[in-house]
Amino acid sequence: MKGYTVLGITDHVDVTNIEDVIASMLKLTEKVEYHEGIKVIPGVEITHSPARLIGEMIALARKLGTHYVVVHGETIAEPVEEGTNRAAIEARADILAHPGLIAEEDVIRAKELGVLLEISARRGHSLTNGHVAKLAKKVGAQLIFDTDSHGPRT
User: Fold this and answer.
1) pLDDT digits (tens, 9 = 90+) for 3-25
2) Taking the domain 6-146, which CATH number applies?
């Protein structure tokens, strides 16, 4: 695997499937952790959830044993409810994925709370990487690069 020793893997969750997905991710981690020297770190991506439920879902994901929580941000390619970026930051998600429509005040808050902002390689989501990177650089917020791959070809 090209020299990688750690692989973070997530699946999309919402209120209907979070328990089942996390149980499956933890089971996968147990089975694959030492395969070819690669440690698999299980996470989840909260996707298309009402902004008012994001804090509750992040807390539940952590209680169920996921190692990190990503929240699907406000993007031009796959819109979510307005206020999602702010809700994810305030609830201290680990990563705000493709937050392309993010405002400067939310980037400042992400810096204060240690929320990483994603620079995405995924088609569509990547269209606003410049905006996110420019604001992050301006205020000193941390970025993370992510493939946001949904399968072998994407």
Assistant:
1) 778 888 889 999 999 999 999 98
2) 3.20.20.140
